[in-house]
């Protein structure tokens, strides 16, 4: 079997009330997809992170990666990953290049699963069929206020979620501490609460915040600092009692290695559409397990990303919790014709061959962006 074609699909959705996290606003929900075709008629779909960089990611694929892959055997996934990574050495080790590689790698796993007639998680030696899902939202939004945040969190509790996560870092410490208090009370004692600063703070600010919210029984404190500040994160993980989680913004196992080895994080987070695909995310998860650390897949994008992160997540014993971003986004909830089941606080991996995703072509046409 040979790769015969690679097509970029660019999708963008404009939320009615755009959310904001601790670092910046999110005016659009962008989804970059690749469709890889083969001479045997098997097609694979992959997704790469592309918030605000849809066209740039497509150009990376078209100009750099596609020429490396046409005519190659799509089942030689590790070899093709290494070929892409070595060839792009002088271009970048984070960001758009890794996002483009992620989309390619995921599509190759989709092809291999369809060729074998098995879900991707089975090819990876999956250890379970579901994960505990936590509702990830709690964004800053115009007009929401404390009452709106409380209603949001009460909604997650009533839907059966066992944990929820909220954004911090976008307001003063006093305001954010009060927001955490309101969320904690709305969730009640049985539902766990995590916070995510999206790299917004320095060490001293993050430590003051952590000490102010420790009494609210926080599950974890995600990406409090820049992922460049390894020494700051080492100190923070040592000095506060809340587990520090991160850093998907470090992308590959090479960057996360120092954070893991030096105990700069207690919980390792990675995302198959940021890190270089399922292949690299799994290596990160295994590296985390070597140091006795839990791994949590990050997820905030489209339906293909959701499925791919789930297949990765159920393949490792040190992954038990899964991020399910639940804001307004049809590119997550409607892009696949076969929905992913969420029930009683659990999210279930698709059991169809490959990723188990079939694109809703009507939705693709509705939200497509031309290069």
Automatic annotation (TrEMBL):
<dbReference type="InterPro" id="IPR029017">
    <property type="entry name" value="Enolase-like_N"/>
</dbReference>
<protein>
    <submittedName>
        <fullName>L-alanine-DL-glutamate epimerase-like enolase superfamily enzyme</fullName>
    </submittedName>
</protein>
<dbReference type="InterPro" id="IPR018110">
    <property type="entry name" value="Mandel_Rmase/mucon_lact_enz_CS"/>
</dbReference>
<dbReference type="Pfam" id="PF13378">
    <property type="entry name" value="MR_MLE_C"/>
</dbReference>
<dbReference type="InterPro" id="IPR013342">
    <property type="entry name" value="Mandelate_racemase_C"/>
</dbReference>
<dbReference type="InterPro" id="IPR036849">
    <property type="entry name" value="Enolase-like_C_sf"/>
</dbReference>
<dbReference type="InterPro" id="IPR013341">
    <property type="entry name" value="Mandelate_racemase_N_dom"/>
</dbReference>
<dbReference type="InterPro" id="IPR046945">
    <property type="entry name" value="RHMD-like"/>
</dbReference>
<dbReference type="Pfam" id="PF02746">
    <property type="entry name" value="MR_MLE_N"/>
</dbReference>
<feature type="domain" description="Mandelate racemase/muconate lactonizing enzyme C-terminal">
    <location>
        <begin position="146"/>
        <end position="243"/>
    </location>
</feature>
<keyword id="KW-0460">Magnesium</keyword>
<keyword id="KW-0479">Metal-binding</keyword>
<dbReference type="InterPro" id="IPR029065">
    <property type="entry name" value="Enolase_C-like"/>
</dbReference>
């Amino acid at each position: 079997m040979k790769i015969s074609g690679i097509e970029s699909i660019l999708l963008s959705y404009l939320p009615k009330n755009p959310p904001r996290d601790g670092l910046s606003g999110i005016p659009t929900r962008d989804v970059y997809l690749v469709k890889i075709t083969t001479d045997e008629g098997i097609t694979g779909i992959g997704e790469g992170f592309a918030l605000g960089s849809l066209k740039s990611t497509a150009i990376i694929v078209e100009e750099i990666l596609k020429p490396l892959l046409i005519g190659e055997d799509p089942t030689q996934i590790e070899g093709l990953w290494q070929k892409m990574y070595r060839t792009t050495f002088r271009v970048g080790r984070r960001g758009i290049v890794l996002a483009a590689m992620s989309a390619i790698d995921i599509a190759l796993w989709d092809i291999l699963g369809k060729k074998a007639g098995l879900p991707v998680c089975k090819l990876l030696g999956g250890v379970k069929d579901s994960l505990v899902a936590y509702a990830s939202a709690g964004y800053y939004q115009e007009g929401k206020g404390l009452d709106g945040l409380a209603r949001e969190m009460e909604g997650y509790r009533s839907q059966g979620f066992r944990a929820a996560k909220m954004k911090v870092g976008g307001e003063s410490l006093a305001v954010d501490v009060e927001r955490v208090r309101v969320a904690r009370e709305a969730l009640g004692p049985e539902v766990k609460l995590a916070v995510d600063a999206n790299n917004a703070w320095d060490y001293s600010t993050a430590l003051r915040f952590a000490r102010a919210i420790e009494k609210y029984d926080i599950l974890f404190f995600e990406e409090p600092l820049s992922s460049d500040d390894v020494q700051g994160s080492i100190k923070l993980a040592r000095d506060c009692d809340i587990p520090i989680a991160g850093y998907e913004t470090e992308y590959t196992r090479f960057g996360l290695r120092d954070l893991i080895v030096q105990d700069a994080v207690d919980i390792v987070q990675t995302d198959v559409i940021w890190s270089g695909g399922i292949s690299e995310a799994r290596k990160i998860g295994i590296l985390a397990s070597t140091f006795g650390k839990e791994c949590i897949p990050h997820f905030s994008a489209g339906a293909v990303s959701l499925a791919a992160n789930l297949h990765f997540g159920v393949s490792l014993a040190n992954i038990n919790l899964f991020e399910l971003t639940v804001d307004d986004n049809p590119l997550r909830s409607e892009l696949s014709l076969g929905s992913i089941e969420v029930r009683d606080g659990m999210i279930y991996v698709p059991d169809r061959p490959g990723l188990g995703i079939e694109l809703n072509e009507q939705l693709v046409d509705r939200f497509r962006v031309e290069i």
